[in-house]
Amino acid sequence: MLLFSLITWRTSILIGRELNGDPRPCGFFDDSPFQSPIPPGSAALKARMLPPITSFPEIARNSFGSFGAIVLSSVLYFELFSSLAIFFVSLGDHMHALIPRLSTANHQVIMAFFLVIPTAFLRTPKHLSYLSMVGTFATISVVSAVFVAFFILGDISNETSLRKFGVEEPPYRVQLNISGLPSALGLVAFSFAGHAILPSIYSSMKKPQEFEQLINYSFSIVTCCCLLVAVSGYYMFGNTVDDQITISLANANIPHAGTALTIIMWLMVLTTFSKFTLDMFPLSLGIEEIVEPFLVGETPKEIASNVIRYGLIIGSLMVAIFLPSFSLLCSLVGLICTMVVSVIFPAGAHLKMFGPKLSTFEKIIDVAFVTFGCISSVVGTMATLKDGI
Fold first, then answer.
1. H helix or E strand, kind and range, residue 203
2. Per the database entry, which stretches of residues form a coiled coil (predicted)?
3. How crowded is residue 341: how many other Cβ atoms within 10 Å of its Cβ?
4. Measured CA distances, 325 to 296, 367, 383 (Å)
5. Which domains are seen in the chain, by residue range?
6. Which end of the chain is flanked by fewer CB atoms within 10 Å, N or C?
């Protein structure tokens, strides 16, 4: 986890420099690239090498041409669509924990489907920002709750094994399980996904030259939260931990904690709602922009927009029904999409855009990242599919 956190932190920095149009740190410049009086490519010391960029497809187009932009956009859309299916699975799992009489996976996901519909059609940035705040609050609350449970409960792997299997099955922890590494790598990769929104964050900053400082703070917080949840969950439950730590907590029969656990479960439902809508928005908007030139008038455009959104919901629901494994979906998305968007592409584009200006060490690091991403994606995906399907 620490290694992949370091890799994705570095590629986030690279994305900022690609958007800035220069291989030097963003903090080296005193002004915003969008308002700089110094023309790019001039002889001035603080002149940027290239004009600033505002999106992932632009980076791909500048680095690998139109074909590269099409390929990257396709991967981004696939990642967003896959995330919708993952959110359906998560909603189904948590709603089943809250309402156990819905015993089948299909019923869980279908109920989640009806709960998601009202939130999937929010289209204004104001409403989306509210959802983002709800998701952030819920995530922080859940991480805090996991830590409190770890502090209070300690090691309950024995009790969990008795409850799940009816017998004690020591050892409850193993030092290393090689066969599980591909899936684990995919899950870790999915946890550190999100690079697709970095161009939007960079472009909206009042001082883009402080982007790398923002990345440093963000990755420090995210890494600490991930480590806290991982260590707490494994210490409490060992090998019996579920795909989602909140499900393990809900099934642990903790005395006098029924109300608190119910609140945690609803918080997970809320944060999944918010993530579903936030991911639905750019995906549906991107597809609408593709079909818009073929439509005339506001009514056909409105109908097409609704059809696209309903189609995405139904399609992602069907994927969740036929692949109801949270860990399998997360692992596959992490290995296929996150490796491309968060590791391979940023390093490859950095090498392509600024190659002559980079040091030998920087070139070696970029090549190593691309190689690592390609090998991990191919080998990990094959191993995960072999074990999971």
1. helix 198-204
2. none
3. 24
4. 42, 34, 16
5. 2-37+47-388 (1.20.1740.10)
6. C
